[in-house]
Amino acid sequence: MTNNSRQQTCIFEAAHLDLTFQTNDGPIHALKDVNLTVDKGEFVSFIGPSGCGKTTFLRCIAALETPTGGTLTVNGMTPDEARRNRAYGYVFQAAGLYPWRTIAKNIKLPLEIMGYSTAEQDERVRSVLELVDLEGFGGKFPWQLSGGMQQRASIARALAFDADILLMDEPFGALDEIVRDHLNEQLLALWARTEKTIGFVTHSIPEAVYLSTKIVVMSPRPGRITDVIDSPLPKERPLDIRDTPEFIEVAHRVREGLRAGHADDE
Amino acid sequence: MMSDGFKAIWAVLTVLAVIVVLWYAACIPMNIKGVLTEQERAGAEVQPTSAKDRRDMSEFGLVLNNSFAIPATWEQDRPRLPAPHQVAIEIWETTVQKKITSKRSLIYHGWVTLSATMLGFVIGTGLGILLAVGIVHSRVMDLSVMPWAIVSQTIPIIALAPMIIVVLYSVGIQGIIPKAVISAYLSFFPVVVGMVKGLRSPDAMQLDLLRTYSASRSQGFWKLRLPASMPYLFTSLKIGIAASLVGAIVGELPTGAVAGLGARLLAGSYYGQTVQIWSALFAAAILAACLVGLLGLVERTVLKRMGMAQ
Q1: Which of A65, A76, B65, B174 has a C-alpha 20 to 30 A away from that of A55?
Q2: What is the pLDDT of residues B154-171, one digit of tens each?
Q3: Closest CA to A156 of A124, A197, A184, A122
């Protein structure tokens, strides 16, 4: 009974996960002995320097990479099954909208592939455009939108088929700080409204602390988890929460975790 | 202030004027020997007087000695190098002033070549796109077809064209088809190269995105690869149609064809009709420019409707 309810609330479960890439310069341990459990409805951030395997781990969840050892379940299924069941939407660092499609048609892309009816497509486009605050931009082409708006459209595209999980790989990495703050705020509001589980890769400490209920600190060579922090911050988070002592303390602990990971390097 | 359009026209006209001046200047030494021979026969006093001495003298020396003969170098019946106005008059007479059913009409000959060009272009483009799709989707085709496609273009078409015509004739195929085959042979290659590049232009992220949707290969082709390849396709088509025209003209040379711009070139060279050769050359160039221009127009319209041109 307890086991059953645990399976329902647990979204990602990684146990002794390994991933080794074979290259001409010998094997590269992208992930080594990664253990992590993420519950339904959490906002989990993966933070660490480049090469720490944070993106690789997200790609393993999305079944874009195949682990070489250990087990990984997504929604109680293998990642591949989860992908075929359309369990997640994925947002990349670049918006990657098709230049030959309008915003609305871009959002329809996954819906067309998944075989939704035209009426259903229109309805979903309308509702996700509202969710990302882009009402009235459906008929525009991507080049007519700013970078921040394009990234919002790509989030709308990932939300369109209403998967339980949203995976985001440094989605705001290419945007300036002001736009990023604004989008972070919007993302939290969206998360509160949709109650999705979000996996978020970033290399910004304030972004990770501001957004997350769980922060996974990773370090490179081999890629591994050095700390998992359950955030004590409340779910309601105005932007100025970043000046509170609790916020600064969590940020401090993340920084310590990153430093500890680096110390092994020397 | 001059507008940009006006400046552009001005620049084009300047270049054109320079070319025309150089052309007229080149006619003088090119034609001087023939002109002096004609003038001597007509009773004019020519320096030096003996034909043998003139043969040994340089063209520039002859021009200096006989400057009175310069205007005549632009008016010969069969000059080595016809003057621009002679070519222009010939083109005028063989297009506007001839019925298009006439065997001397340049429009008639142009149409014969154009129809073979279009047929070859359609075959070549279709073949090129099919091969590109195969190459992109099959590793075996990538390794086996691409080297042959490259080798095919290293064989001089002038050597291959008679073979194609002979082989096709022996199986009873003649007329427009052999010319179209040669034309297709030249035009499929740029289409293959351009389309392979175009179909492969989506980056890893775009392909990953489709994987997250568990999209099928055919969905990936129709929704991503094909639309992404359109700008590449049009660039290839513009090269391909010019190659098609060259192919059709070359295809007319070895057959002793009686019609077509190639036949016109060949007949001109048999009878020393340089004016006819040059007017056929210009007709071919104008035809090529029109075809490329037309494709450019289609390109702009299509890409604009697709939202890919701003």
Answers
A1: A76
A2: 988 888 888 988 898 899
A3: A124
B212 to A83: CB separation less than 8 angstroms, yes or no: yes
Question: Smallest Cβ distance to A96: which of B206, B214, B306?
Answer: B206
Which pLDDT belongs to residue B26? 93
Query: Measured between beta carbons, which residues in chain A are less than 8 angstroms from residue B301?
Result: none
Angle between helices A177-194 and A118-131 (to 10 degrees): 120
Distance (Å, whole) CA B228 – CA A101:
11
Has residue B88 been placed in a domain? no
pLDDT of residue A263: 57
Kindly list the residues from chain A whose CB atom is less than 8 angstroms away from the CB atom of residue B210.
Answer: 113
> pLDDT of A149-201, one tens digit each?
999 999 999 989 888 899 999 988 878 888 888 888 888 888 888 888 999 99
* Together in a domain, B260 and B151: yes
**Pick from B205, B215, B223: CB nearest A96:** B205
Q: Which fold has domain A1-87+164-243+252-266?
A: Rossmann fold (3.40.50)
- The rounded distance, in Å, linking the Cα atoms of A82 and A17 is 17
Kind plus residue range of the DSSP H or E element containing A225: strand A224-230
Q: Same domain for B212 and B250?
A: yes
Q: Is the pLDDT at A254 greater than 50, yes or no?
A: yes
- pLDDT tier for residue B255 given thresholds of 50, 70 and 90: low
In this prediction, residue B2 carries a pLDDT of: 59
A159/A130 Cα distance (integer angstroms): 11
> Which residues from chain B sit within 8 angstroms of residue A154, using beta carbons?
none
ipTM score of the complex?
0.86
Residue B97 belongs to some domain of the structure: no
Domain ranges of chain A: 1-87+164-243+252-266, 93-162
Confidence of residue A1 (pLDDT cuts 50, 70, 90): very low
The CATH number that applies at residue B116 is 1.10.3720.10
- One domain, residues B174 and B125: yes
Angstrom distance (rounded) from CA A230 to CA A253? 11
Angle at A173 between CA A168 and CA A179, to 5 degrees: 105
Phi, psi of A49 (to 5 degrees): -70, 170
The domain in which residue B18 lies consists of 4-81
Residues of A in contact with B307 (CB under 8 A): 99-102, 141, 143
B223 lies within 8 A of chain A by CB:
yes
Please give the order of strands across the beta sheet that includes A224-230.
A88-91, A165-169, A197-202, A43-47, A214-219, A224-230
DSSP for B208-232 reads HHHHHTT--HHHHIIIIIHHHHHHH
C-alpha–C-alpha distance, residues B250 and B117, integer Å: 11
CB A40 within 8 A of CB A74: no
What is the reported pLDDT for B65? Answer: 85
Amino acid at A78: T
